[in-house]
Amino acid sequence: MASLADATPPIALGALDGRYRGAVAPLVDHLSEPALNRERIRVEVEWLIFLTTHQVVPGVRTLTDDEQRQLRRVVDDFGAAEIEELATIERETQHDVKAVEYFLKRRLTAIAPDPADSGLAELIHFCCTSEDINNLSYALMVKGAVTDVWLPRASALVEAVATMASDLRDVPLLAHTHGQPATPTTMGKELAVLAHRLGRQLRRIGAAEFLGKLNGATGTYGAHLAAVPGADWPALSREFVESLGLQWNPLTTQIESHDWQAELYADLARFNRILHNLCTDVWTYISLGYFAQVRGQGTVGSSTMPHKVNPIRFENAEANLEVSNALFDVLASTLVNSRLQRDLTDSSMQRNIGVAFGHSLLAIDNASRGLAGLDAVPSAMAADLDANWEVLGEPVQSAMRALGAQGVAGMENPYERLKELTRGRRITGDDLREFVAGLGLPDDVAKRLSELTPQTYIGAAPELVDFVE
After folding, report:
1. Where does the Adenylosuccinate lyase PurB C-terminal domain lie (predicted)?
2. Which of 115, 172, 197, 464 is least enclosed by beta carbons within 10 angstroms?
3. Could you tell me if 172 and 186 lie in one domain?
């Protein structure tokens, strides 16, 4: 039997790099292994430029504007050839960050070849532990993935749900609480609830903090002060971290504590869970016939039953959201722990960040495509409402309660009387109107209740859609 492991090009082990590659490809620029190395190179380059432009080490010349441009171009031009070169170096060093240092030293020698400048290379990775570079790199990677890829896709999904809510704001819907017919609402209002919940999580994620540190092997600036005792290293560290667009963490062990990551992943997981709720609700509405899957559905629904169009987009989304949340949950719970001043648990764990984001992004893609293929079926919703006149027991008994509180005679035991009329059996509009007529209600109340139907008993549901933010 031929070995699939030997196939060329290599076959992906996971679905994200296989059949779903197209949906998650934008994350590769942010959360892949090469993206991590590119950000490591970026941080090392910016640190070298920072040290020379700020004259931190006495007697070291400032890099010229052209030299700075060439160094930054190393980051911008980082591609397939550079990935392979860096991998070759790492096979020798057996250390990924040290490989980045040697890679950059080669580039700097080419950019500043004068033997008098040979000492500049010693400022690459100056006073840094690997975690100084890694924590900043991961912060830049995750920030880019959130702001450039995940948030735009998630925001577009929420906007689509909000638009559906607005379009269906007036379409009456029989509610189901505990799976039983309940007080009518509108399809728009129910979608608005989900859009509002999702939007709130988006605002939390959009306000996320991305922290970083650069303070040495145990967070004390020990090497920094030993090398250049006259520098204000905490101030320099803060300025450098903030120059990268990150927030400075002043107190750490060897590692940045990752609390910001745990906070972000908890919010992302909560968004995922609400989206999962949306998928199961829409799936149920489809099964009830309230939505038809018609637009853009040129696919095979069932391999044997031609009449079927299965709600697979929402089912696939559910599965991917569950995988994503399993990863986000373990990331959030694990990354906040480190033995004493350092262990490497976080290093292995952070290599799964891209997979967690990937499954979330894939779910967003699935849900978005599923929603885009739906048409509401108001007639099906109306039919269910017309078959459940007993839901009007609530407004009748509530009106009786209000009248009884005002001292109107004959309004005793309203709940019990409506329970006797409606519980365990179906009633018609005629049954309800006959009951209302025999209550001795004031004329205006009797008229209002007699004119009420399941379709019109929707309260302020349409107006509530306007509260979506």
Report:
1. 338-458
2. 115
3. yes
- Is there a cis peptide before residue 250, judged by omega within 30 degrees of 0? no
From first to last of its 469 residues, the chain has per-residue pLDDT tens of 888 888 888 888 899 999 999 999 999 999 999 999 999 999 999 999 999 999 999 999 999 999 999 999 999 999 999 999 999 999 999 999 999 999 999 999 999 999 988 889 999 999 999 999 999 999 999 999 999 999 999 999 999 999 999 999 999 999 999 999 999 999 999 999 999 999 999 999 999 999 999 999 999 999 999 999 999 999 999 999 999 999 999 999 999 999 999 999 999 999 999 999 999 999 999 999 999 997 655 454 554 444 557 899 999 999 999 999 999 999 999 999 999 999 888 899 999 999 999 999 999 999 999 999 999 999 999 999 999 999 998 998 898 899 889 988 888 887 888 788 778 878 888 988 988 888 888 999 989 999 999 999 999 999 999 999 8
**Is the distance from CB of 248 to CB of 241 less than 8 angstroms?**
yes
50: Cβ contacts below 8 Å, ≥ 6 apart: 56, 236, 239, 240, 243
Whether residues 162 and 216 share a domain: the answer is: yes
Tell me the residue type at 242: E
Residues 273 and 201 in one domain: yes
Please check whether residues 107 and 139 belong to one and the same domain.
no
Q: Evaluate whether residue 460 is within a structural domain.
A: no
Catalytically active residues are: 178, 302
Nearest to 356 by CA among 280, 279, 264, 245: 264
Residues 262 and 173 in one domain: yes
User: What is the chain's length?
Assistant: 469
List Cβ neighbours of 351 (8 Å cut-off, separation of 6 or more).
33
Q: How many helices (H) and strands (E) does the chain have?
A: 21, 6
* 232: amino acid identity, one letter: D
Please tell me whether residues 234 and 351 are part of one structural domain.
yes
Q: In one letter, which amino acid is 243?
A: S
What are 279's two structure tokens? 């998928």
> What domain range is 235 assigned to?
132-297+307-375
> Which residue from 250, 260, 258 is spatially nearest to 221, judged by alpha carbons?
250
Report how far residue 173's alpha carbon sits from residue 380's, in angstroms, rounded to the nearest whole number.
Answer: 9
Domain containing 425 — which CATH number? 1.10.40.30
Number of domains in the chain: 3
Q: How far apart are CA 212 and CA 135, in angstroms?
A: 6
* DSSP string for 294-361: -TT--S-S-SS-TT----HHHHHHHHHHHHHHHHHHHHHHHHT--STT--SHHHHHHTTHHHHHHHHH
